[in-house]
Design brief:
Helix content is 37%, strand content 20%. It is of the alpha/beta class and 315 residues long. Strands 4-3-5-12-6 form a five-stranded mixed β-sheet, with helices on both faces. It has a three-stranded antiparallel β-sheet with strand order 10-7-11.
Length: 315
């Protein structure tokens, strides 16, 4: 049985045209002279003539110019070809310009993602610096949990992702650009018994408290820190959004953990108690990229801006 050609394949039968031929053709068409075109191109007249002859042969032998005693003139076929040749030449120029801008980081695109609390201070500060330095780069941003961001990164939908070690997500497959180590705070009502006490608290001191968390189980959340300190917190309310968590705390319905990146945005009727670090900081924050995948100049510049912003926040 004969195999029918793919109806979507439109390349069969198209001539294989050299861009050098088209460049010579457009210059001759503009100058209406092989001699003037050769002078402009820096070629010999015979070289220009060979390019035009090759182009005419590729197009089935159709003459593109009438050779006159003084100069040349486009044939009807030549007049039809002119706008198409200009479109090809223009597209190649645009591609060259875009590639040059991508190479030096003044153009191209940057697609990144970040977890929610990184958007409170770290990402906006870094993005402001990046925008000032690279105003021509098209930037798109996504928000999500670390695991989801890494999935999008692996799939090629993101160039980099700002992620954290919260959630026990495996990070071995990625290049991790360390940004900062982030301590934790406990948010309690302003009139809480521990609110005025100086110094950090141990989470075990709040073992009997009701906790507000983004998930019903502490595993894979900030409350992993409580498990490491030897007790299993009682999650009384599951609230995903940070602003809503603060409302629950202010109403006396429980306490919650707040990462340092979100501490500056906490409402005034809540007190923040620094958590005593046992075995190191609660989590580290990284800019993650796919191992083995080359970074664009824009992505490298954004990682640098993230590091600058992280250094200012840490200070």
């Amino acid at each position: 049985m004969a195999v029918m050609p793919n109806s979507h394949d439109r390349t069969e039968g198209l001539p294989d045209l050299s861009t050098v031929w088209l460049r010579a053709f457009l210059e001759v068409a503009r100058a209406e002279s092989f001699t003037v075109a050769a002078r402009t191109l820096g070629w010999t007249q015979s070289a220009v003539s060979r390019q035009i002859s090759s182009l005419e042969s590729a197009l089935g032998g159709t003459p593109l110019f009438d050779r006159l005693p003084r100069g040349v003139r486009l044939t009807e076929a030549g007049r039809i070809l002119v706008p198409h040749a200009r479109a090809v030449a223009g597209a190649l120029r645009e591609a060259g310009d875009e590639l040059a801008a991508l190479r030096v980081g003044t153009g191209g695109r940057l697609r990144f993602g970040a977890f929610a609390t990184a958007d409170a201070a770290l990402v906006p500060r870094a993005l402001a610096v990046f925008r000032a330095r690279r105003p021509g780069v098209r930037v798109t941003r996504e928000e999500g949990f670390t695991a989801g961001l890494l999935d999008r990164l692996t799939a090629g939908r993101l160039d980099l992702a700002v992620v954290s070690t919260t959630g026990r997500t495996p990070l071995d497959a990625y290049d991790l650009h360390h940004l900062l180590d982030e301590p934790l705070y406990v948010a309690v009502p302003a009139d809480h018994a521990l609110a005025g006490r100086p110094g950090p608290v141990r989470l075990g001191e709040l073992a009997d408290a009701d906790w507000i968390s983004g998930a019903p189980r502490p595993e894979g959340t900030l409350l992993d820190a409580a498990l490491r300190q030897g007790f299993r917190p009682r999650v009384a309310h599951v609230v995903a959004e940070w602003t809503a968590k603060q409302g629950y705390v202010a109403a006396g319905l429980g306490v919650t953990l707040v990462p340092a990146l979100a501490a500056a945005s906490v409402r005034p009727d809540i007190a923040l108690l620094p958590v005593h670090d046992e075995g190191g900081p609660a989590r580290a924050v990284y800019a993650a990229t796919v191992r083995g995948r080359s970074l664009t100049t824009a992505a490298e510049a954004f990682v640098a801006a993230l590091r600058e912003a992280a250094a200012r926040i840490s200070a």
